[in-house]
Write a structure and sequence with these properties.
Blueprint (H helix, E strand, L loop, with lengths): L1 H7 L9 E2 L1 E10 L2 H4 L2 H7 L9 E10 L14 E2 L23
Antiparallel strand pairs: 1-4, 2-3
Length: about 100
């Protein structure tokens, strides 16, 4: 339905081939199917019951990156990045990190 499509879409200013957000991850731990079926658990890890694996990692907070224009006005827009397989590290300018993420 239209609501689901909207929730799954990136906001205006963000697109494919971009870093779009920063997230803080919590602990990773082994779970049971009963735990994975609890609504509170599903909100914390972004997975649903039997669709998720035994291991879960909590998602503590998420924020969209700001526009790389450096003006600090909270403008939205991702940072271009060539895709790669797997998990990898990237360096981004501090001016795209939202307030409250850098000590």
């Amino acid at each position: 339905d239209e609501r689901i499509k909207k929730l799954k879409s990136l906001p205006k200013g963000y697109g494919k081939g971009q870093l779009v957000a920063i997230c803080e991850l919590g602990k990773t731990y082994v779970t049971t199917l009963d735990e994975r079926c609890e609504p509170g658990f599903q909100r914390k890890v972004g997975a649903y019951g039997a669709d998720s694996g035994r291991f879960a990692t909590e998602i503590k907070r998420v924020a969209y990156l700001e526009s790389p224009n450096g003006n600090g006005d909270g403008s939205i827009g991702g940072v271009k990045l060539s895709g790669r397989g797997g998990v990898f590290k990237v360096k981004v300018d501090k001016n795209v990190i939202p307030d409250g993420w850098i000590e």
